Amino acid sequence: xxxxxxxxxxxxxxxxxxxxxxxxxxxxxxxxxxxxxxxxxxxxxxxxxxxxxxxxxxxxxxxxxxxxxxxxxxxxxxxxxxxxxxxxxxxxxxxxxxxxxxxxxxxxxxxxxxxxxxxxxxxxxxxxx
Length: 129
Fold this sequence. Notes:
Layout: H1 4-26, H2 38-57, H3 61-78, H4 86-103, H5 111-127
Helix pairs in contact: 1-2, 1-4, 2-3, 3-4, 3-5, 4-5
């Protein structure tokens, strides 16, 4: 059983991290104008990494899995191609929304399929290095 005070900290921190990921992902609309294109990806990786850690502490296993899948894509992308395609950004947005739903303990349709798509995207980005 998770201590109530730990759960309260988790709730505040997890929502903040999800909001930051959502906001940072919108910066990709300005991708071509960015001097350091890896900077937002480093931030997204950091937010997903922290979310993964706090989720595991409070036993939110599916949220941990989704954050880890996003983390792997952000890691691959920051060292990969010069830009993310709109389809990849859309998939990442879907993953972030899934994090929100999991955080709110709502059902995520096609959860396993989404994890697989994110894993495939990560592999594809690593191949483009």
